[in-house]
Specification:
single chain, alpha/beta, Rossmann fold, Beta-Lactamase, five-stranded antiparallel β-sheet
């Protein structure tokens, strides 16, 4: 049975203009539409007729209960509804919504072409999900029998992704036409052979093995894993899941392969352009900061109180922009595998001492008590000086920013086995347990009443993780809300 092209869309927005425009666009394409002007009204529709909503177009700018609360409610209920958010700028809140389970975000200033570019992707994702559900259901009793699935193969061959299915021993039992084109496969080459023995598939054997061997808890974790793997001239995104029988036992694995070579190329071009723009911004911003400092310090003449205040704020904003540019450039280098620029023998004690002194003014302005304890005769570390400095600066800066006035920040550097351990403990606001696993994600920022006023890019801890990983080290965090946070970085010593 093939999936029908018509879908049911629920549009949720209190802006009547946007709501009506979306409604007309969706209706004009032959889809069914329901509308709601509040989260409460949308929940009533979903709860009374859950099967009548396939895709929800949800505004993140609703009053009272915001759109984010509805995203979280539907995710907790494991709803099958695919959520497309709408926002004026698709900024941080949209990113949070996608982390919470939303598929994508549409700017409310969309053109018709842009609207359908996003919606068509969502519709394709919805149809793929349904086709996979059909595949899973029909394959439950078929893996132990002769493959007699003409109708099923029509569905599989209609997928835009390559599909490879194995049995419980990772022997290939099925693949669709798209997979055959991607890998240049024939039945004689791969059918009923182990993935690891197939020359054109063996580099993906670990994904199938993990899926087959996974238990239910690991299967949940793997559900969101979609790494991009370079094979030959192609860049392939892979999503592997276990196939289970009615009793819940794993009897095989199914992997989807999406050729993202062109997208990856465009991402590379976009990244290069982003880096070029950041480089071009850095020089004039630095020059502007220097000139503002001269004026604010009174070296160009006396200022009135109001002038000094306004120029002081401009100086701080310029500092923030320079920090953002530097963070973008650092993160770009990490993405390109260039986080280590120069390998040399490092005296980490000297680097840490210099960093603490550099941050001393910031801590004193906030009235913080900073204590630095560095052990003697520490082993040398081989690595990149700039990278290690960036780790220390980011972690100490975070401790200062997130610790209230009058608090304490303790920094220590000790021997740990054959390596060194850097530890920084603050008496700040702390981190909730559900946020700890995500704080190293790029652009992820914790949103609480205590942290809303703290500026930042959300890239600092991503940079820390990337640099520590590049040095074969480990970074660990421990925290309790209201009690403070401890970051521990372990680096191996010079061989």
């Amino acid at each position: 049975m093939l999936v029908t092209p018509s879908i049911n869309v629920l549009i949720v927005d209190n802006d009547i203009t946007i709501l009506q425009r979306c409604r007309e666009l969706v209706l004009n394409e032959g889809h069914k539409v329901q509308t709601a002007e509040s989260v409460k009204e949308a929940l009533n529709i979903v709860q009374k007729h859950p099967g009548d909503v396939d895709i929800m177009l949800l505004s993140l700018e609703l009053p009272k209960w915001g759109g984010m609360s509805l995203v979280e409610t539907l995710q907790k209920a494991r709803s099958a509804i695919l959520i497309m958010t709408m926002s004026a700028n698709c900024g941080e809140e949209a990113i949070e919504a996608m982390h919470a389970g939303a598929y994508d975000c549409i700017r409310k200033s969309f053109t018709t072409e842009r609207f359908w570019t996003k919606m068509n992707r969502a519709i394709e994702a919805l149809r793929l999900r349904r086709q996979l559900e059909i595949l899973t259901e029909q394959r439950r009793g078929a893996l132990s029998r002769k493959l007699e699935a003409n109708t099923l193969m029509c569905i599989l061959n209609s997928l835009t992704y390559g599909l490879v299915v194995t049995d419980g021993h990772t022997n290939v039992v099925l693949f669709n036409e798209k997979a055959a084109r991607i890998f240049d496969l024939t039945e004689e080459q791969v059918l009923f052979r182990s993935v690891s023995d197939c020359e054109k598939l063996n580099e993906f054997s670990s994904f199938f093995e993990r899926a087959v061997k996974s238990d239910s808890s690991l299967s949940t974790l793997m559900a969101g894993e979609e790494p991009v793997v370079k094979t030959g001239a192609k860049m392939l995104r892979i999503h592997a899941d276990p196939v289970k029988n009615r009793a819940g036992a794993v009897i095989g694995a199914a992997a989807l392969f999406h050729d993202v070579t062109r997208v990856s190329t465009m991402d590379q071009l976009r990244g290069d352009f982003f880096s070029m723009v950041s480089h071009e911004l850095k020089s004039p911003l630095s020059s502007l900061l220097m000139q503002l400092s001269v004026v604010v310090d009174g070296l160009a003449g006396e200022l009135t109180t109001k002038q000094a205040d306004l120029l002081g704020k401009a100086k701080e904003k310029t500092k923030g922009m320079i920090t953002l540019v530097n963070d973008i450039l650092d993160y770009r280098r990490i993405q390109e595998g260039k986080s280590i620029q120069k390998i040399e023998r490092l005296d980490v004690a000297d680097i840490l001492n210099r960093t603490v002194e550099l941050m001393r003014l910031s801590s004193e302005e906030k009235g913080l008590n900073v204590v630095c304890d560095i052990s003697e005769k520490l082993p040398a570390v081989t690595g990149d000086r700039g990278g290690v400095e960036a780790v220390f600066v980011n972690l100490i800066s975070n401790a200062i920013k997130y610790t209230p006035k009058g608090g304490n920040v303790n920094v220590s550097l000790n021997r740990e086995g054959k390596g060194v351990r850097f530890m920084i403990t603050d008496t700040g606001v702390g981190i909730q347990s559900e946020d700890i696993d995500r704080i190293f994600e790029k652009f992820y920022r914790i949103k609480t009443e205590e942290t809303r006023s703290v500026s930042g890019t959300g890239l600092g801890l991503s940079i820390v993780k990337g640099i520590v990983d590049a040095h074969n080290g480990v970074v660990h965090v421990e925290s309790e809300v209201g009690e403070g946070t401890t970051f521990i970085v372990s680096l191996p010593a010079e061989p």
